[in-house]
From TrEMBL:
Acidic residues biased stretches: 121-138
Origin species: Pseudonaja textilis
Signal peptide residue numbers: 1-15
Name of this protein: Elongation factor 1-beta
Record function comment: Catalytic subunit of the guanine nucleotide exchange factor (GEF) (eEF1B subcomplex) of the eukaryotic elongation factor 1 complex (eEF1). Stimulates the exchange of GDP for GTP on elongation factor 1A (eEF1A), probably by displacing GDP from the nucleotide binding pocket in eEF1A.
Segments forming domain Elongation factor 1 beta central acidic region eukaryote: 128-155
Length: 250
């Protein structure tokens, strides 16, 4: 309500809620431990990665803590977001932004079920958009399903990532009379799926003795250092021992 003065007369004029949009509606997701709250969150995240902006922030932390447990699979957008934010659990205090009240996040057209908007019932009954909203919801649902199908298709076609490592080996001979060319030939004769030999050189150790330093790249699931050591030291006429000088994931 507001007072308008005309000369000495005072008129009482009802404030119209048309421009503000804050009457009969509240912002937020409601109870995020209920199915209705999770449904709102799921719909909200259907075309978003985060609650606010394009990086994880305190907004995500506030909503994550309100959800408290993993959403059911049917709320797949909310579940995807929940698992992603969960991975930041140890760094959540350092995420950007300032945590606000839970009601400050989410869609701004949530129905007011608290009873505080009862005085504006007539305003709530006016649907300015009619059936267009339902049509948009159907279109959005269809678009989400198409995008999900495309994602699953790309995921199925994407080749699995092969974990590889670069290993530098030190192969030591028995003495200075060991034929190092023959020793290297024996080492390179070891063949296995997921094993590729690289460059090599002789490195002085002392007393005229040199060790073979040789590089190789292996697929982690197929070749390990234990297997390499077993096969290399099997050439006992030339090899005294084998050590891993460097090990790096590729």
């Amino acid at each position: 309500m507001r007072l308008v003065l005309f000369g000495t007369a005072v008129c009482v004029v009802a404030a119209l809620p048309i421009a503000t949009g804050n009457f009969g509606a509240i912002m937020g997701f409601g109870d995020l431990k209920s199915s209705s709250g999770l449904q709102l969150l799921n719909s909200f995240l259907s075309d978003k990665s985060y609650i606010e902006g394009y990086v994880p922030s305190q907004a995500d932390v506030a909503v994550f803590e309100a959800v408290s447990s993993s959403p059911p699979p049917e709320f797949y957008h909310a579940l995807r977001w929940y698992n992603h934010i969960k991975s930041y659990e140890k760094q959540k205090a350092s995420l950007p932004g300032v945590k606000k009240a839970l009601g400050k996040y989410g869609p701004a057209d949530v129905e007011d079920n608290t009873g505080t908007g009862g005085d504006n019932k007539d305003d709530d009954d006016i649907d300015l958009f009619g059936s267009d909203e339902d049509e948009e919801s159907e279109e959005a649902k269809k678009l989400r399903e198409e995008r999900l199908a495309q994602y699953e298709s790309k995921k199925a076609k994407k080749p699995a990532l092969v974990a590889k490592s670069s290993i530098l080996l030190d192969v030591k001979p028995w003495d200075d009379e060991t034929d190092m060319a023959k020793l290297e030939e024996c080492v390179r004769s070891i063949q296995a799926d997921g094993l590729v030999w690289g460059s090599s050189k002789l490195v002085p150790v002392g007393y005229g003795i040199k060790k073979l330093q040789i590089q190789c790249v292996v697929e982690d699931d197929k070749v390990g250092t234990d297997m390499l050591e077993e096969k290399i030291t099997a050439f006992e006429d030339y090899v005294q021992s084998m050590d891993v000088a460097a090990f790096n994931k590729i």
